[in-house]
Write the structure tokens for this entry.
Amino acid sequence: MTKKLVVVCVAVGLWASIPGIAAENPLTLQTSIPLPGIKGDFDHFAVDLDGHRLFLTAEANGLVEVFDTQTNKLIHTIRGIEAPHSMVYRADLKRLFIVDGDASEIKVYDTNTYALVGHVPLYIDADSQAYDPETKLMYVVSGGREAHTPYSYISVVDTTQSKKMADIKVDANWLEGLALEKHGPRLFVNITA
């Protein structure tokens, strides 16, 4: 592992030392948006490009904040979520799918009115997710440590029907991030346990 880390560090160092690479793509802070009254971390973001909105989960506050990306102003607060984690925004349906870990479900909101329009039951401690825009399937991690089970689940949710289709049982009590292969059928899971 040390050899791999050294190789990666050397490769990154060489890439960064190529003349012009760093100068072509500098990152600069454009603006800061104050968030008074918000405590704790932000778990995830989702974006509505056409509607110029950024959705932000304020997990410890039980809120999803909605910002206008043109003005950087807070335009709405979605309340009634116990522990909002990851989200998926479906522009074609004008729906926001919020994984609520403490409620063990996905809450579905109409993003025109911000009204709660559906629930998809999951297992205890629903958290990370990955979304496939081609199939419209959402894969959500749940179970494990908080459920006091030696296994976890990856639930497969059809976002078009707002319905759980299947569960994949994983013999580990702690799963975290998920990633879908861009040009293939594989789903990768971080087995933290």
Notes: The chain has one domain: 40-191. The chain has two helices and 14 strands.
